[in-house]
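re: ur msg from earlier - yeah i can do the zinc ion complex, just paste it... oh wait u already did. ok heres what im feeding in:
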Amino acid sequence: MAMLNILEFPDPRLRTRAVPVETVDDELRRLIDSMFETMYAAPGIGLAATQVDVHRRFLVADVSTDKSDPQVLINPEIVASEGEMINEEGCLSVPGIYAEVRRAEKIRVRYLDRDGNEVERDMDGLLAVCVQHEMDHLEGRLFVDYLSEAKRQKIRKRLQKERRQQPEPAAVL
Ligand code: K1U
Ligand code: ZN
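and the outut:
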């Protein structure tokens, strides 16, 4: 397993639309394990492949408080949804920024699990919010896209300023 680098807003690679996974194999499962390691270390409750510069349609999530409920969704599709709710969201690709986003309250999702088996499952609460957020990443969409351009610009400037104050550690070549 390996820790992966998480792309940060406004990196244009976060705008890539991911393509379907063709084969669920050991190479994909190794990548999934590295995504869990990266997500738990961050710490976060979800991570989409797009965020680690892999432009294939899969995501990981675990909304439990003790890492006891890891979920892998490959080629996820929302086949039904109902209701609306507004939740405060964060994003590992937009560090330190939180904003309220309106999402469907309940979703029915069809996907392949880590063994390639087709699953159809109802989700609600934080898992439903997280899966909708991660599926947006696979479309190249970020939660800040639901905010005004003025707010997005403010976030861009704030992150730029923070990066200038905390430059990346020098790479050992
Ligand atoms: O960047 C991501 O996609 C991960 C993101 C997922 C998410 C959070 C909140 C609402 C919707 C989607 C995060 O995990 S941000 C970090 C976070 O929310 C968290 C971290 C530790 C404990 C609990 C929550
Ligand atoms: Zn995110």
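cool cool. The beta strands are 46-48, 58-61, 71-82, 85-89, 99-103, 106-112, 118-124. ping me if u need the other ligands too
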